[in-house]
Amino acid sequence: MRHVIALDVGGTGMKAALVGADGALLYQARRATGRERGPDAVVESILGFAAELRAHGEHHFGEPASAAGIAVPGIVDAERGLAVYAANLGWRDVPLRDLLGERLYGVPVALGHDVRTGGLAEGRLGAGRGADRFLFVPLGTGIAGAIGIDGRVEAGAHGFAGEIGHIVVRPGGTLCPCGQRGCLERFASASAVSAAWAETSGDAQADAADCAKAVESGDPRALAVWQEAVDALADGLVTALTLLDPRTLIIGGGLAEARETLFTPLRAAVERRVTFQKLPTIVPAALGDTAGCLGAGLLAWDLLATTPTAPSEVTT
Which among 103, 109, 111 is positioned nearest to 82, based on CA atoms? Predict the structure, then answer.
C-alpha cells in the first residue's frame, strides 16, 4: 500500500504516522525528542524515528514510504529545507530536509512550520474543509496563525505570515519576549490565562482549564479573568479578519478545549466589534493533536504530486 511518513516535532515530544493517499492514519507512534541531551541528539532522534517508520511501513505494507513530511517549531525556511531556529530545541540552521532524505534512502522530503502544517490539515481535512479562505488560530503557550487560501497555507515572503499573537492589542501593556508591549498572546494564550488565574485565585498550580471550570461554576473572579482574555482575543481576531477576510475562523489549542465556555462569549465579542466586515464562521478545530501529523502527510503527498517522475533505470 502506498504511503508517506509524517513527523510532527514538538518541544518535548514527537508524533509520527504513516499516512495513506486519502489522509488515513495507517500507523501512529510517539517518541521523546531527547532535547536534554542537546540539539544534535534531537536531530538524531528524529532521523532514527523516521528510519523506524520506514521499516514498519515496508514490513506491514509491502513497500517503503514514497515520501516524508516533517513539521517543526520555530523559524523554518521550507524552500531551502532548513530548521533555522527553535529555542525549545536549541538548534540553528539544521539542514533537516537533506538529512532526513539521506536517512530515508533518497525519498523526497517536505519541511514545514508546525502551526502552518497543522492549519493545512484543519483546512483540508478538518474544521475548514470546503472553505476557500480560512484562518487557523491555536491558543496554546503562545498564539500563532495559519492563513489558508484555496487549499494551501500562505507562508509569507519571509516565512512569518500568520503571527497573529504579536498583533498589539493593548498598547503599552505587558512586555512580550518579541520586544513589543501589549501583544495578543500576553493576554489571550492558554499560558496567559493560566498565569492570570493563578495570581487571581492565589493557587500557584491553577491553570486555564481550572479557570474555565470556575467560569462554568459562576465564580466572578474567574469570569473577570476569562472576559479580559476573550476581549483581547476578539480585538486581535477582528484586526486579522479585517485584513484577511476569511470565510472560516478555526480556533484550536488548549484554550479551545473549554468549548462553548470560550466560543459563546468569543462569537459575541467578535460580532460586537465588526462594522463593515463580513463575520466569518467561528468554529473549534476538529483534528486535535493529530493535525500536525496529518498536515505533514499532506505536505509529503503534495510534494509527490509536484515532483517530476524520474525515468526508469534500465538494467542489463
Answer: 111
CA dist 130 and 225 (Å) reads 35
Output the pTM of the full model: 0.91
Q: Which of 169, 170, 56, 159 is nearest to 117 (CA)?
A: 159
For the stretch 125-182, pLDDT in tens is: 999 998 999 999 999 989 999 999 998 999 998 888 999 999 999 999 999 988 999 9
Distances (CA, A) of 179 to 90, 107, 172, 183, 274: 20, 41, 12, 9, 29
- Angle, vertex CA 148, rays to CA 293 and CA 144, nearest 5: 70
**Residues 2/19, Cβ–Cβ less than 8 Å:** no
Residue type, 111: L
Question: Among residues 128, 253, 112, 281, which one has the least CA distance to residue 189?
Answer: 253
Query: Strand order in 13-20's β-sheet?
Result: 25-32, 13-20, 3-9, 68-72, 109-113
Q: Is 282 helix (H, G, I), strand (E, B) or coil?
A: strand
Look up cell 508546525; give the residue.
114
| Whole-angstrom distance, CA of residue 230 vs CA of residue 265 | 7
Name the packing angle between helices 114-124 and 291-306 (round to 10°). Answer: 80
